[in-house]
Amino acid sequence: MIDTFEASSLQEAHYFAEQIEEWYLNNKRELPWRDIKDPYRIWISEIILQQTRVVQGYDYYLRFIDRFPSVEDLAKADEDEVLKLWQGLGYYSRARNLYSAAKSIVERGEFPTNYKDIRMLKGVGDYTAAAIASFAYNLPYAVVDGNVYRVLARYWGITTPIDTTEGKKLFAALAQNLLDKKNPAQYNQALMDFGALQCVPNNPNCNECPLQANCIAFLETSVSSLPIKAKKTAIRTRFLVYLYIRYKDRILLHRRERGDIWQGLYEPLLIEFSEHAELPSIIQKANLPKQAAFRLAVKEIKHVLTHQVLIVDCYEVDLTKFTTIEKYSFIPEKERANYPASRLVEQLYEAIDNLK
């Protein structure tokens, strides 16, 4: 294996691209955002597929385009509606950035047509800008996502960690040098599909891989160890208790504020503890009227986020006396579905409904 990529290895670039594109023509996925040139629809698909598998994002894309067929439709929508349509996809900053960028595009008068201007859209990074530029305008920009890192690291035997500055520069330069500049759209899609379907993270079918003969990882039996990451993300465990507070036919909700991963989404009263809490401690910390009746709806469900594990309890709480809590408001329970919520809160709602 190698720690740096030597320019002399680029003599294999034509062979590599040829094999990848030939494989793609026989194995590519038929997707609604493929073989189109509409930058708006390509942008929507790329934002949805950030941190989301194709199988999960497919129906979201169709619903999103059906509701917002143009950037103008998206720009004039209400943010709550955009978040509601996004509900369940997670990483809600993507939806907020999409909405903000749509407004800026409409103000601009057209969707940007070059990499630099595309890259300036809110929520668009190097990868997404390269994808839109190549797919919509056939501009010669190489995409580098997780699939691309994996294929390149294995084929060329690169041991430089992909999550370091050196690694990012190395892989970006290699990807750009390997790019089929006559047909960047097809090449980029081919390379990503190859990583998603053939050169998969675990147990790839190397025996039926067209790149097997020259793949350094295969030849050196290091497929399972590449690509390499230098950093291990610390995972934090948090203990949360949600109180689904009901007074007559209304429930208490709060809209999460700026700077939050669930910004703009609604949720019941939330209390956090340093460890799993029993009901007496919860009642004391909630500071609700003494007549409040608590009923356990969810006990210790685990909700996994990128850098956190949430251990969650949820109690249904019926009030006999009206009370106010700062930044929380009572809304008609029958209108709950109109308020966008995280997937975690959706699960809590389902549990509450099953108690009835």
From TrEMBL:
Keyword set, alphabetical order: 4Fe-4S, DNA damage, DNA repair, Glycosidase, Hydrolase, Iron, Iron-sulfur, Metal-binding
Enzyme class: hydrolase
Cofactor dependence: [4Fe-4S] cluster
A Pfam family hit: HhH-GPD
Reaction equations catalysed: Hydrolyzes free adenine bases from 7,8-dihydro-8-oxoguanine:adenine mismatched double-stranded DNA, leaving an apurinic site
Keyword Iron recorded: yes
Signal peptide residues on this chain, from the entry's feature table: none
Entry note: cofactor: Binds 1 [4Fe-4S] cluster.
General function of this protein: Adenine glycosylase active on G-A mispairs. MutY also corrects error-prone DNA synthesis past GO lesions which are due to the oxidatively damaged form of guanine: 7,8-dihydro-8-oxoguanine (8-oxo-dGTP).
Name recorded for this polypeptide: Adenine DNA glycosylase
Organism annotation: Alloprevotella tannerae ATCC 51259
